[in-house]
Design goal:
homodimer, 205 residues, Rossmann fold, 8-stranded mixed sheet, 12 strands
């Protein structure tokens, strides 16, 4: 299988020095790359800024912003069978990026706009032979929101995971299948979770 | 000498997932710790989130926000002879931190306020036997602003460095001494720069 994996955070610049970031470590995406290579798949990874070694054999593209990840995913997805969107993409970004370092001032208003919804965009160009898996990082217990996203983004599987997954070595997830079935995967290492998810992916066809 | 060194960025939370960060890698602070230990000084480091090994023998405190760095510096500075403020402290932070993950919306306004000016606060409690060194990361050529900060923050030495120093392996700096003298230190590795700066520090008494 040819698998496209996104991982890590994105950064949305405010000025040449500051950005809006998020606490994603990329650990889950790193584990997914390892598990997919170990299972004999061809893997392309689109990576936000992270400080992790990525498995040998992965074809890697580094990006910084949600816009760059959007462009990279839409360019790569048609060449792949499966997209696993493990990156924590910024949902919003400053409308204006200042070209000089902002000085300390009394008050500052940062006006933000929504970034492109990459999974929805991939869902719209998905061909009959292709599948997409999304992650839904939600406040504890908010599985209803994950179910909504499964439908809205035209996904084949969504992984609900609570906020404490972020930047953690372990993950306590629930897989939500398109037929409505919930498959809890109680807390385990991200490496173990990744092996299970890559295994489950075959059932999507 | 007992030297207090701050290094790395700070992060200012927007919600449980997002924060305002900056591109500081902590490389310069790391190099200053190495150079100070090598010169036989006692070193305390107050570190923002970074992904670097810190020299053995350094007494280390990890913080995340500007407010936490402010508290740590004011607590530690009285026990030290010299403060070198190499951290890239956020100049502003969100006024309100949302306790749930913000959903993607059409528009979002992040209202920010100034963070405490740590160097100025240290300058105000500085005793006659103590010295403070600041860094001034400015748009290329804006040495006038570094001179202002030297006076405003009651510093004994300020290092002007242009924006491209951030997250770079090298630094192209100018030392500005209180008598107005400018000492250019053309581009060199941060390790070399750190050795020079730790050496120059003795001249501050």
């Amino acid at each position: 299988m040819k698998i496209l994996i996104t991982a890590g955070p994105t950064r949305e610049p405010i000025d040449p020095v500051r950005y809006i970031g998020n606490r994603s470590s990329g650990l889950l995406g790193q584990a997914l790359c390892v598990a997919a290579i170990a299972a004999g798949h061809q893997v392309t990874a689109i990576l936000g800024p992270l400080h992790l070694a990525i498995a040998t054999g992965v074809h890697r593209t580094d990006i910084e912003t949600a816009e760059q990840m959007h462009a990279a995913v839409l360019s790569e997805f048609p060449k792949h069978d499966l997209l696993i969107m493990a990156a924590a993409v910024a949902d919003f970004r400053p409308v204006r990026v200042t070209d000089h370092k902002l000085a300390r001032t009394g008050k500052l208003l940062i006006e933000c706009e929504a970034t492109p919804d990459i999974l929805s965009a991939a869902g719209r160009i998905k061909q009959p032979h292709q599948r997409t898996i999304g992650f839904s990082l939600e406040s504890a217990g908010n599985i209803a929101r994950s179910r909504q996203k499964l439908v809205q983004k035209n996904l084949d599987l969504i992984v609900y995971n609570p906020l404490n997954t972020l930047n953690s070595a372990s993950i306590d997830a629930v897989l939500i299948w398109p037929d409505g079935r919930e498959e809890p995967l109680p807390a385990r290492s991200k490496a173990d979770f990744a092996t299970v998810l890559i295994g489950r992916a075959k059932a999507l066809w």
